[in-house]
Each structure stands twice: as structure tokens, then as C-alpha cells.
Write a structure and sequence with these properties.
Blueprint lengths: L1 H18 L2 E4 L19 H10 L6 E6 L2 E5 L3 E4 L3 E7 L30 E5 L5 E4 L4 E2 L1 E3 L1
Parallel strand pairs: 1-2, 2-5, 3-6, 4-7, 5-8, 6-9
Length: 145
């Protein structure tokens, strides 16, 4: 009986992970795509968040945002939904994962730290009182100014 319950839990857990999606964002694109590849990336974080919400599948989606761009935010708060993980600092090459984002020794101290992305994703707020609300999930690979 224990083995059966353990097996059922594993299958349920695995099914949830399989249905989660990766949504790609390239803020430099003029036209927003469906976010399924770098070539058809969404062109905004809000667009990618909408795609994740509309996907109607279980699991936590990952949103990969191409670096080398500054994303300007004009609102007073930015809420990260609990069903989405945000990762910045990507070069925009197929096969990249959060663990393989290119790093570089930005401060020239001889050590490449895990926060020194070669292609940083910068979020700039025009409102000095902007709050970032993290309901749950991951918010990694960003410079906030």
C-alpha cells in the first residue's frame, strides 16, 4: 500500500512539472509573439504574464527574459504572480537555462559572481516609490534601478 501511494504521489508531481511552460520575452522586438521560442518571443513582461495565465495548465511557468535591455516600468507597484518564476539575464540562444546564463567578471575583481550576468536585464522605474510584490516564486537575474 505504501508503494502504491508513493508511486501515485510521484506521478502527480511529475505531471504537474511536465505541464509547466517556459515563456520567452525579448523586449527589443516590435511585435509580440506567442512566447514559445526566442524567435517568437513576447515583447513585454506583462504580455508574458498574460500568456502564462491564459495557458490554462497546471504548474509554475518560467518566464525567461532576454538581457541587454532596459525595461521601463511606469506603475506604482509590480506584482509577481505566485504561479510564475521570472528569470532575466539571458542571451536569447536556444537551449539556455537559468543555470547556463552567461556570466562575466563585471567588477574586475578576478571572481565571476553568480549575479554578474553578461547580458543583464534592467528594470527601470519612472516612479521612485515603485514596489515589487513577490507573492511566491522566483525573481532572479535582474538589476533594478
Amino acid at each position: 500500500m505504501k508503494k502504491l501511494i508513493t508511486m501515485m504521489l510521484c506521478i502527480t508531481l511529475f505531471t504537474g512539472m511536465v505541464n509547466a511552460a517556459i515563456i520567452y520575452v525579448d523586449p527589443s522586438l516590435s511585435i509580440s509573439g506567442d512566447g514559445t521560442t526566442w524567435a517568437t518571443a513576447a515583447n513585454s513582461i506583462s504580455g508574458a504574464t498574460t500568456l502564462a495565465a491564459d495557458a490554462n495548465h497546471p504548474g509554475t511557468d518560467d518566464i525567461y527574459i532576454k538581457g541587454g535591455n532596459t525595461i521601463t516600468y511606469t506603475g506604482s507597484s509590480f506584482t509577481i504572480p505566485s504561479s510564475v518564476n521570472f528569470y532575466g539575464g539571458f542571451h536569447g540562444i536556444d537551449g539556455e537555462t537559468p543555470a547556463t546564463r552567461p556570466l562575466i567578471d563585471l567588477d574586475s575583481n578576478g571572481i565571476t559572481e553568480l549575479w554578474e550576468f553578461q547580458y543583464p536585464t534592467t528594470i527601470y522605474s519612472t516612479n521612485p516609490n515603485t514596489a515589487i510584490n513577490l507573492a511566491a516564486g522566483i525573481f532572479d537575474g535582474f538589476t533594478i534601478t
